[in-house]
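step=encode ok
step=design start
structure_in=
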């Protein structure tokens, strides 16, 4: 197997899931992109757009646009930090919480259908590998960024 095939398969799997999920979503102003944001926010009590951007490795501009859409649709609220007004906390509204539960149900159902013939031990092993590869990629990205910054400071 050529290693680039792994990247191709992961990309295709992600896009297929996005397409399947988009057919199931029937909520005002909710896309597969901001539905993923909604789920991530639901897993954290308070989060900032910067944290969301960093954790999901998503462009800050896209996060900002999607937060505006989610807020306008009534899924989230944004509140300035009382101690530091440069920080804005994002939280789910009741509608956002209910929608996140529905989205999680949709995603779980699709995954269960896809993985129906895969033994649980294989699913857990694959999850472990993907999580570790994600951590390794994070470390590599930091190293490469630091090397790039060092090179640009020399020139």
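sequence_out=
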């Amino acid at each position: 197997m050529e290693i680039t095939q792994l990247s191709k398969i992961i990309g295709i799997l992600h896009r297929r899931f996005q397409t399947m999920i988009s057919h199931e979503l029937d909520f005002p102003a909710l896309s597969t992109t901001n539905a993923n944001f909604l789920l991530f926010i639901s897993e954290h009590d308070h989060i900032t757009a910067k944290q969301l951007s960093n954790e999901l490795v998503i462009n800050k501009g896209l996060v900002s646009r999607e937060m505006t859409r989610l807020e306008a649709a009534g899924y989230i609220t944004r509140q300035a930090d009382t101690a530091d007004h440069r920080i804005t906390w994002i939280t789910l509204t009741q509608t956002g919480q209910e929608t996140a539960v529905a989205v999680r149900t949709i995603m779980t159902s699709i995954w269960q259908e896809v993985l129906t013939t895969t033994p649980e031990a294989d699913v857990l092993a694959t999850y472990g590998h993907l999580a570790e590869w994600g951590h390794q990629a994070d470390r590599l990205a930091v190293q490469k960024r630091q090397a790039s910054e060092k090179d640009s400071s020399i020139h």
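step=design ok
step=annotate ok -> The first helix runs from residue 4 to 24.
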